[in-house]
Amino acid sequence: MNTVVIGSTGYGGVELIRLLENHPEARIGALVSSSQPREPLRAVYPHLSHMEETLEELDPDRLCEAGEVIFFATPPGVSSRWAPRFAERGKVCIDLSGDFRLTGEAYRRWYGREPAPGDWLERAVYGLSEWYAEQIRSASLISNPGCYPTASLLALIPLLRERAIDPDTIVIDAKSGVSGAGRGLKLNTLFCEVNENLRPYRVDAHQHTPEIERYASEAWGSPVRVTFIPHLVPMNRGILITLTARAAEGWTRRRLEEMYRGIYQAAPFVRIRPENDWPGTKQVQGSNYCDLAVHLDERTGRVIVMSVIDNLVKGAAGQAVQNLNLRMGWDETAGLEGLPLYP
Ligand SMILES: NC(=O)C1=CN([C@@H]2O[C@H](COP(=O)(O)OP(=O)(O)OC[C@H]3O[C@@H](n4cnc5c(N)ncnc54)[C@H](OP(=O)(O)O)[C@@H]3O)[C@@H](O)[C@H]2O)C=CC1
Ligand SMILES: CC(=O)N[C@@H](CCC(=O)OP(=O)(O)O)C(=O)O
């Protein structure tokens, strides 16, 4: 089955290409670039020198012939314009951007743009694979979660659904590698700004805060607010989030771990770490795993959960392929069996 990648020259796009090239069912039907010459992809990425595919323009008629599934690995404002047009022509769209993750009102406020026209915001299905698999299986437009929300919600949703924490006390400290910011030139991601540096950014102002709150609220059943503090770390890939919240009555560390193990028993990409075995980003690098570790600080009565992912895999392209697999009725792990890259 053929797929199209729009935004193929970015970090999310090229990671999708890596995964699709190793996929047993999916093929690449077309690669789209809005800015590069109509040359083979290797002109942009010499590590793909064996690939013959030439970069194409965004021509809907041609792309509808080229593939059944259209991936958008594009900045905000692109899929909101184009994905509905492909979905209306019967194509399955999988969007890696934030264009379909929020309500129209929240999107205007946090992304500063006009949301997609028509009813596509409501029709889009949130692509957090472990929690929305049933809806994903029949979706026309899958809105892949953000990288920080993926790591955060896989840790947080079980705590809320099982009433294990006080939802007014949630703090998420988050750290991301620089590839999370994409390949485009930006002052803040230049070598001398990032190297030997660790810094918070967009504190209390990050666009993933409303996304985490939206799906946390759904899990809890009424509005939940979180304190979300992202940091930029001088490494290429990886996200570590440390979530803390006050424990509800009656919870022990063992009970918390058993709860996570039960919930994610059938989830092939969520691994629960044993007691005092803290996860690091390198342990999931290049893979679609999310590793979770849970602790109960008995002195303060606070639950502590660590969650690590590779931002470009489970946080973007890997989860997009997992959603493709769910949507097509293939094995959920198809094309995603690769082990983490270590060291
Ligand atoms: N990096 C990450 O870890 C994650 C990223 N995301 C989201 O995925 C999306 C892609 O991110 P990422 O790959 O990192 O970003 P990049 O900046 O690396 O790549 C985005 C690509 O989109 C293309 N593009 C830019 N403008 C347009 C346009 N007007 N029309 C069509 N294509 C355009 C560009 O390619 P060209 O100029 O060749 O068209 C560019 O290479 C973003 O929305 C991002 O927020 C989500 C989760 C994690
Ligand atoms: C390190 C870094 O800069 N990460 C990006 C990740 C967010 C992203 O990819 O944007 P979407 O909202 O479109 O998902 C950021 O903090 O904005």
UniProtKB/TrEMBL annotation:
Catalytic activity: N-acetyl-L-glutamate 5-semialdehyde + phosphate + NADP(+) = N-acetyl-L-glutamyl 5-phosphate + NADPH + H(+)
GO molecular-function term, one example from the UniProt record: NAD binding
Gene3D superfamilies linked to this entry: Dihydrodipicolinate Reductase, domain 2, NAD(P)-binding Rossmann-like Domain
Major subcellular location class: cytoplasm
UniProt-listed GO biological process terms: L-arginine biosynthetic process
Alphabetical list of InterPro entries matching this protein: AGPR, AGPR_AS, AGPR_dimerisation_dom, AGPR_type-1, NAD(P)-bd_dom_sf, Semialdehyde_DH_NAD-bd
EC category name: oxidoreductase
Enzyme Commission number: 1.2.1.38
Location(s) in or outside the cell: Cytoplasm
Gene Ontology terms: cellular component: cytoplasm
Annotated pathway: Amino-acid biosynthesis; L-arginine biosynthesis; N(2)-acetyl-L-ornithine from L-glutamate: step 3/4
Sorted UniProt keywords: Amino-acid biosynthesis, Arginine biosynthesis, Cytoplasm, NADP, Oxidoreductase
Domain Semialdehyde dehydrogenase NAD-binding: from-to ranges: 2-139
Residues annotated as catalytic: C147
Function noted in UniProt: Catalyzes the NADPH-dependent reduction of N-acetyl-5-glutamyl phosphate to yield N-acetyl-L-glutamate 5-semialdehyde.
PANTHER family hit by this protein: N-ACETYL-GAMMA-GLUTAMYL-PHOSPHATE REDUCTASE, CHLOROPLASTIC-RELATED, N-ACETYL-GAMMA-GLUTAMYL-PHOSPHATE REDUCTASE, CHLOROPLASTIC-RELATED-RELATED
Protein family per UniProt: Belongs to the NAGSA dehydrogenase family. Type 1 subfamily.
Name recorded for this polypeptide: N-acetyl-gamma-glutamyl-phosphate reductase
Record organism: Planifilum fulgidum
